[in-house]
Amino acid sequence: MTEIGLPPINYGAITPMLILFGASCVGVFVEAFVPKAQRHLVQLVLSLGAITAALVTVVWQADTRTVTAGGAIAIDGPTLFLQGAILVLGVVSILLIGERSLERGGPFVAQAAIVVGSDADRNQTVRQPGATDIYPLSLFALTGMLLFVAANDLLTMFIGLEVLSLPLYLMCALARRRRLLSQEAALKYFMLGAYASAFFLFGLALVYGFTAGTPSGSGDNGGGVDFATIAAAVRNSEVSPALLYAGIALIAVGLLFKAAAAPFHVWTPDVYQGAPTPVTGFMAACTKVAAFGALLRVLHVAFGGASWAYTPVLGAVAALTMLVGAVLAVTQTDIKRLLAYSSVANAGYLLVGALAVNKQGLASTMFYLVAYGFTVLAGFAVVTLVRDADGEATHLSRWAGLGRRSPLFAGVFTFILLAFAGIPVTSGFTSKFAVFGAASGAGHTWLVVVGVLSSMILAFPYLRVVVMMWLSEPGESTPSVLVPGGLTAAALTIGVAATLVLGVAPESLLDLTNRAAEFVP
Amino acid sequence: MAGVTEFPFLSVLTLAPLVGALVVAFLPRTNPELAKRVAFGWSLAVLALSVAMWVAFQTGGERFQFRESYPWIPSWGVSFTFAADGIALVMLMLIAVLVPVVILASWKDADALKRSVPVYFALLLALEGTMIGVFAAADIFLFYVFFEVMLVPMYFLIGSYGGHQRQYAAVKFFLYSLVGGLFMLAAVIGLWVVGGQTFDWQALTQIDMSTGTERWLFLGFFIAFAIKAPFFPFHTWLPDSGAAAPAGSAALLVGVMDKVGTFGILRYCLPLFPEASKWFAPYALALALIGIIYAALLAVGQNDLKRLVSYTSIAHFGFIGVGIFAFTTQAGTGAVLYMLNHGLATGLLFLVVGMLVARRGSALVSDFGGVGKLMPILAGVFFFAGLASLALPGTAPFVSEFLVLLGTYPVNKPVAVIATLGVILAAAYVLWMVQRTTQGTLNPALAEHEGMRRDITLREKVVVAPLIALILLLGFYPKPVTDVINPAVQATMQDVGKTDPAPTAVTTEAAK
């Protein structure tokens, strides 16, 4: 056994993660030492500042291509692009999370541990400002996401997965209103997430076993879980691939759970509905980028040599995801659940792109992730605005006639829904075109056909909302649309502008994805 | 190719109404008259520009003229490429003529509703811009973009400003068109991959593909166009939309937007997939014939005027389909001419029906009767529109219907014979409709309606006059239009690889 020493680390390359990790630790101290009245502002500025600083360092090292930390972290085109995407979407999410003008004290509860329905609970619901520990939690989650997409071996990836997941479980439980739903969501997400992590870990062990049985594994130890070793083993192994296939399957379960692909999607509607809406937006945008970032790396780099083996199975998963998401979206009566199922269907479209294991597939999937992230954040931003005395009015019937009450927001939401439906002049169209084009080019025509079919089904629920808003008469119970505070307005503007720009002039982002779409070996 | 032809007609024509729509949308709601005037003036300016383009078009010159190209998404080989052949030119003229007429006809439509008047006229202009874009695009991606975006203004026109069952009709319209569009999207993507990642129409006509691929791609495009046109059995959305849409929008819907379907077949299906077009032609002809007979029979049985007119359109689209898939220059020219004439005749019919409905407050035939005694002039115009619709000799549709049948007979006698039956049925549904509404004894209920005593107003005269004039003019002297259409159709037939049977030709240069 050789002596274990610290491997050389290129600290420059991992600065973004270090910045965020440091800022989240500082955030914890802020909770402890800064007076209650100023915490919100301090935390908000700290979070936005930290994310921006991380983003600047990501942009700054845009040309870095290196593997560091003993092969545990790969900083390459896809990593940097996805990290940038996560950070930009993270900024927008933090804007939504930081909004406090829509509701007294913000969308979060002060103490999630107080028993629901008790006097103390009623008191904190109406009086107390929300907890500010949501900020360090978000930063921890973002740190995990950055690590998740940069991980170059399965163990690091697992650590990233846990670092991003654990704060998310907590964040789900922090809703100010409908706290039981929120707690149920958190518990459900935690339980199922824990299973998924276990699957991932088991798959990791099996893949390690596979590489260990391969003479061509790196070094003398006969095995490893870094992607280069796995890729070499996949290419050259002479042992039975049963372990490999079982390993891929189990790892895929873990990742597809986070990506909300069918049949591992059942948590999605409940969690999306129960979680505070800004957190839902955060999950729908950032978590999706992280999950697919990791999935892309695993499929392309580690198991790229076995793509003929997993493509049929994952293709079936993609088809199922698109159809399940689309069909179940039709029956929804709650806007957040509708968007949740739409997010499931979108996971399917992303999977279609991810399964085209070539440069075009990689580039188009990354494009889709960014485009979808902005649109979905804008969508949830509008959801936070439609309110009545009991908080957000999410039942669809309540949205009837909203176009009369406030044409501007109904118009904006219509635009967002058209983007989800993939109508041209929105990023929804260009991104769908990108992934379907890549899939078609890779010979997966049947996936394109299923994708198109599911888009047809999915258009119906979106259109129903449009009809509700514009063509129905406003009723007694039509809620009002609040004038957004500065932060929500900024988030909404960014989301809608990105949806429009990426739909009309997508060239610059396409160019960026094309240049970034190459993993380091 | 110097001087005026270098003016970027097509891009300006596409952009101008869209800009106008934005301007009109943001005019104050409190001053509806201003919005109407601006919208009308804007559409007249577009008409003037279109006329200039018509003059600048060189008959017998290159097939595609006014070509412009600007890069858009180089990574995908997408560009803003515009170009017009004779067929597109004729359709662009039709749009430019119909929109001001429709705006004038819809002058008071939005007032009665408690909805924004400026938005209504902005939607009409937006519709004009997107429709022009569809016909002017020479890049398939760009075509697809306009094809889909076009749905949005029409959806809101039907859904927000329509009549009875407008929500249902609007959703049905949108979903049917979107489903077709998505089939086309799959085919567009397939074509893009097969053709080496380009969307340039000219380049894509040159590529080789396997028979199987070609047929599938053809089907993707064809379904979209068949829904749009609409051909039997994809037609069920049209009567609902036609009945629910405000009369002016219905005139644009049936008069122009549906032509995108037949135009698409001529521009995209035939030249891009010639072998598949020939292979599918018998089926397409069968659908067209069923459409002619079936829709005509249904039209006879309708009690709702707007639904009736919608069904007559489906029958007419059957004729256009026959003309396209007969693969002769004569029939093809007839089909394109029919696309123009049908837009004028049915547009007129829809607008006149709209005037009647606005007075009576009902579109049911049984609510009318003997209208001619109260309003002789309007009833006369209605009769004329009906006659034009049934293709009476002397009116423009006759020329086109005759050309279609004449061009089809030498190559496919049974089809021509069956299609002729449709002519008889057309006489039946039109004359019976006219008889039940304007002739006979006066329906006593009508006298109670104040509006029914007011015959055609000056504004309405201005609305119908240009259409009547054009229908008569093209009925007697269609040559200026056929000269423009003929070379384009001939080139299309060459793309398909069909030559005309020996002894026929409309004009002398067609015979080369």
Automatic annotation (TrEMBL), chain A:
Keywords: Cell membrane, Membrane, NAD, Quinone, Translocase, Transmembrane, Transmembrane helix, Transport. It is a multi-pass membrane protein. It holds the Pfam family Proton_antipo_M. It catalyses: a quinone + NADH + 5 H(+)(in) = a quinol + NAD(+) + 4 H(+)(out). Its EC number is 7.1.1.-. Residues 151-457 form the NADH:quinone oxidoreductase/Mrp antiporter transmembrane domain. The chain crosses the membrane at residues 12-34, 41-60, 80-98, 134-151, 157-175, 187-210, 242-267, 279-303, 309-331, 338-357, 363-386, 407-426, 446-470, 482-505. One of its GO terms (cellular component) is plasma membrane. GO terms for molecular function: NADH dehydrogenase (quinone) (non-electrogenic) activity; NADH dehydrogenase (ubiquinone) activity; quinone binding. The keyword NAD applies. GO terms for biological process: ATP synthesis coupled electron transport. Belongs to the complex I subunit 2 family. NDH-1 shuttles electrons from NADH, via FMN and iron-sulfur (Fe-S) centers, to quinones in the respiratory chain. The immediate electron acceptor for the enzyme in this species is believed to be a menaquinone. Couples the redox reaction to proton translocation (for every two electrons transferred, four hydrogen ions are translocated across the cytoplasmic membrane), and thus conserves the redox energy in a proton gradient. NDH-1 is composed of 14 different subunits. Subunits NuoA, H, J, K, L, M, N constitute the membrane sector of the complex. This is NADH-quinone oxidoreductase subunit N. It comes from Micromonospora pattaloongensis. The lineage of its organism: Bacteria, Bacillati, Actinomycetota, Actinomycetes, Micromonosporales. The gene is nuoN.
TrEMBL record, chain B:
It is found in: Endomembrane system; Membrane. Residues 137-422 form the NADH:quinone oxidoreductase/Mrp antiporter transmembrane domain. One of its GO terms (cellular component) is endomembrane system. It holds the Pfam family Proton_antipo_M. It comes from the Bacteria. GO terms for molecular function: NADH dehydrogenase (ubiquinone) activity; NADH dehydrogenase activity; ubiquinone binding. It is a multi-pass membrane protein. Belongs to the complex I subunit 4 family. This is NADH dehydrogenase subunit M.
